[in-house]
Every structure is written in structure tokens, then in C-alpha cells.
Automatic annotation (TrEMBL):
Transmembrane segments: none annotated. This is Jacalin-type lectin domain-containing protein. It comes from Echeneis naucrates. InterPro entries: Jacalin-like_lectin_dom, Jacalin-like_lectin_dom_sf, PolyBind_ProtTraffic. Pfam families: Jacalin. The keyword Signal applies. Residues 1-16 form the signal peptide. GO terms for molecular function: carbohydrate binding. Residues 23-158 form the Jacalin-type lectin domain. PROSITE patterns: JACALIN_LECTIN (PS51752).
Length: 168
């Protein structure tokens, strides 16, 4: 009887994929000098803030997870550029420009086709996106120094389907 149950459940368990199979990593670009960072938070990313030195490079990034802001990475310079996501909206692409010393531009694209573009469109291009259908940005990692962001990578995966509400 036990072996019959085993053979009945085996095909069903083969069809179910664990969510870890949907994880992917977009390898970091940039010099990689400075202090390592990884954004931290629980749930879905619901907003993004980015700071830049005028006509130069990205100095700081901060993500909001289910309406709680994570620790800022880098430094605040001037006013923050901010994108608040709608219910069910997700970051599905991170692109930009980098040079040997800093990230010069970053662009976050959402599942609704909206984008936050900050920085200068100069130097080498990068384009990060998830490998698996339905995956979204879960966290950013990289390096920063006392001036700005020197390296940036993206981690993708599935986020629970619990819906959240935003102010927009």
C-alpha cells in the first residue's frame, strides 16, 4: 500500500517546481571597489529612490519593501529621484551605464512599462532582467565608496502573491 501511494504521489511532485528554481542573478558590473552591499527587506519592492551627483554618477540607492524603506546604500546628494509602484507592479528590468569607477546611470523598468531613469547616459551599457517568466527584482547588490556606487548586480525571483496597496 505504501509503495502504491509513493508511485501515485511521485508524478505530481515532479510537476511542482520549488520557488528557488526561479532565482537568477545578473552579474555585477563596475569596478567592484569599496564596501560590499546587499539590499535587505521582506516582501515585494514597492518603491525606489536614487541619488546622483549632478551631471555625473549615481551616489545612492534605497529600496522600499512592502512600505518599509531599507537602509540607504551610498550617500544622499541633492534631491532623491523616486518611483512608487502600483499594486501588483514589479521591477522587471534594470539597465544603465557604467565606467571603470562608478555607475553613471540606472534605469528601473516596471511590469507596467513605467521607468525611473537617473544619471548620465555615458560609457558602457548594462541590461539586467530575470531569466524566468514571472520573476521580478528581489534585491540589489554591489559595492560603494564614500563618493558613490561603484558596482551593481541584480537578484531576481518570485515574490509571494499577497497584494499590497500604495499611495498612487
Amino acid at each position: 500500500m505504501l509503495s502504491l501511494l509513493f508511485f501515485a504521489v511521485l508524478p505530481i511532485s515532479c510537476l511542482a517546481k520549488p520557488t528557488s528554481d526561479f532565482y537568477s542573478y545578473s552579474v555585477a558590473v563596475g569596478s567592484g571597489s569599496g564596501t560590499a552591499f546587499s539590499s535587505e527587506g521582506e516582501g515585494r519592492i514597492t518603491a525606489i529612490r536614487v541619488w546622483e551627483t549632478s551631471n555625473a554618477y549615481i551616489t545612492g540607492i534605497q529600496l522600499q519593501y512592502d512600505f518599509i524603506w531599507s537602509k540607504r546604500v551610498g550617500r544622499e546628494v541633492g534631491n532623491a529621484h523616486e518611483l512608487i509602484l502600483f499594486d501588483g507592479e514589479a521591477i522587471i528590468q534594470v539597465s544603465g551605464k557604467y565606467h571603470s569607477n562608478y555607475i553613471y546611470q540606472v534605469m528601473f523598468v516596471t511590469s507596467r512599462g513605467r521607468a525611473l531613469i537617473v544619471g548620465q547616459p555615458i560609457q558602457n551599457s548594462f541590461n539586467f532582467y530575470p531569466v524566468h517568466q514571472g520573476a521580478e527584482l528581489k534585491l540589489l547588490s554591489g559595492r560603494f565608496n564614500s563618493n558613490g556606487i561603484t558596482s551593481l548586480g541584480a537578484h531576481w525571483g518570485l515574490v509571494s502573491s499577497i497584494t499590497t496597496s500604495s499611495t498612487q
